[in-house]
Amino acid sequence: MKYTHAEVPTKKRIALVAHDNKKQELIEWACAHPLLKNHTLFATGSTGTLLERALDYPIEKFLSGPLGGDQQIGANIATGGIDVLIFFWDPFEPMPHDPDVKALLRIASVWNVPVACNVTTANYLISSPLINESYSREIPDYQNYMSGRV
Ligand SMILES: O=C(CO)COP(=O)(O)O
Question: Where on this chain does substrate bind (predicted)?
Fold first, then answer.
């Protein structure tokens, strides 16, 4: 695989997602970090509705996770529309949409997007100076990949 770079803007596009047993944790984390409001926030349906209420800040909501929201966020990562993923997934509960969860985590890895799956990592991420700076992110060179296939 050949790689190229994408410029990540100063104002990040941050996706916030939590499974039901982790929603309260994510809400408390988001409320404790008002700096999030310097960025554009996205979320899956139920997570987004709860966060919007708690933060009193607009959140662009996708479908609910089990109905395709995880896949929508994954598609946005692949097309360069999301720069950071905060995904508090539940390690104790099997989900009907486990394949979607795995696919979202995989595609974030493919496109070298930073992912926080727990509060500690989210704290490290949000306190990184890079969250308020532009950043050159290494990504797969799609043109090169395609030219080798067709
Ligand atoms: O299921 C989810 C992530 O896999 C989250 O979806 P909701 O935010 O709609 O609950």
Answer: 19, 23, 44-47, 64-65, 97
